[in-house]
Amino acid sequence: MKSTLALVVALLASLVGAAPASAGTPASEPRPAASDKVFTHVCEQQPRYECGTITVPLDYSRPSGPKLTIAVSRFKATGSARQGVILYNPGGPGGSGLFTAGAVPASVRAAYDFIGFDPRGVGKSSPISCVDPSFFATPGADPNPRSEADKVPFVKRAKSYADGCAARSGAELPYINSLNTARDVDEIRKALGESKITYYGVSYGTYLGTVYGQLFPDRVRRMMLDSTINADPAAVWYQDNLDQDLAFQKRSEIWFDWIGRYDGVFHLGVGRDAVYANYLKARSALAAKAAGPVGPLELDAVVVNSAYYDINWVSNARAFSNFVVKGDATALISYTRDNNPATADGENSNAVYTAVECNDARWPRSWSVWNRDNTAVAQRAPIETWANAWMNLPCAFWSLPQPSALRITGQGLPPILMLQGTLDAATPYQGALRTHQLLPSSRMIIEDGGGSHGVYNAPWVHNTCVDNYATAYLLTGAIPAADVTCAGHSLPDPGAPSTSRSLPRR
């Protein structure tokens, strides 16, 4: 929720490799000649991809009016039995989708041209801005207020951010929303000469896919939604964020409990309560004196990152332990610098996140409503609630009209496959079930006890049961007759080597 998807995209790009098509795939579908007019050159930084642009209307109610440029990428199908295109969105809002073919395994890359894109406003697609990147300099102020007076600077900051979006993004700002991005997806489809697409979205990408399917159901061949956002208009986006706070608290406490099982490794106490007490101790120490760029906000970011991905549990626990036990903040400082939000890319990503969420749906315009609701939730979920509130509070001061969120019925859609961990904090399970209800043609593959965000083909999950159902669906359209539950993947072993993954928005 707090930083860009740049490292995630780099990881996905690095996983790409060629492989023959799997047995039993259908006869090859010819690649439309129109697609070669879109992809005009080999991508400079990723030579295994082809790059290009399309132009789309700024305002779809004025198709002959001003235009935006949308950057697209293609990783050509590596096998002889091409099935068409997969169009992919990795999440956000505000994340780049270029160079992401590693999101699917080699057998799927053999069967499809994999199409990535930067959504409007993001990266290479007519980017917007709201503030100077220094707005996000670390250490940030402690987000958790001790009094009503502590909240005043954050309210002023949110208003200044909303004003900055209006001033710096100007004419483009009103048109940065999920509806228009979904329309852009269909413009990509048309530019490629495809009658239908297979759509695959993760996190926010699931909401974008749901919107696309609502607008263009006859253009969907297959659709896979991984870690699904609650698309009920009553939840988008204000209630979704409050629900997220509670889920992050639960998932963070699961991490604290796990640390407490390994006191001999981390020396942070036995049991969840002891570890939680050390977290509060560390937080107080950083509030009194920051460790370089690391204050309470940055420590909380490490905790939230652990709630996103248990592959990071070991490295994050060691960084936490080193600070508490040894007074050594080196690893926390390194994490903060590696995930620095005060960059041009980070600022752009946050600008698009804010614009999409503020433009998609209605938000309370009264600070008193935000204060009441977040105060109540913070009593149950103190780790993330106020940081999340301050991040979204610009929507209370948004200068543009806010419509009701799109009503989702799922009418006319083909069978959809949904993948969901029951302990996912970023897209809570109950919200995913609500979207499941809104999409009558959907089936869900449930990872029971899975809490890492993004399930399919994920090196941070390795769940063969989930992967097999998902790959079969993409290659053959096979969908189970009823929802399926797979056992959750194993939790990390602190004695084994670990890798880390950066934090996306959702």
Automatic annotation (TrEMBL):
<dbReference type="InterPro" id="IPR051601">
    <property type="entry name" value="Serine_prot/Carboxylest_S33"/>
</dbReference>
<dbReference type="Pfam" id="PF00561">
    <property type="entry name" value="Abhydrolase_1"/>
</dbReference>
<keyword id="KW-0732">Signal</keyword>
<dbReference type="InterPro" id="IPR000073">
    <property type="entry name" value="AB_hydrolase_1"/>
</dbReference>
<feature type="signal peptide">
    <location>
        <begin position="1"/>
        <end position="23"/>
    </location>
</feature>
<keyword id="KW-0378">Hydrolase</keyword>
<comment type="similarity">
    <text>Belongs to the peptidase S33 family.</text>
</comment>
<protein>
    <submittedName>
        <fullName>Pimeloyl-ACP methyl ester carboxylesterase</fullName>
    </submittedName>
</protein>
<dbReference type="InterPro" id="IPR029058">
    <property type="entry name" value="AB_hydrolase_fold"/>
</dbReference>
<dbReference type="GO" id="GO:0016787">
    <property type="term" value="F:hydrolase activity"/>
</dbReference>
<feature type="domain" description="AB hydrolase-1">
    <location>
        <begin position="85"/>
        <end position="451"/>
    </location>
</feature>
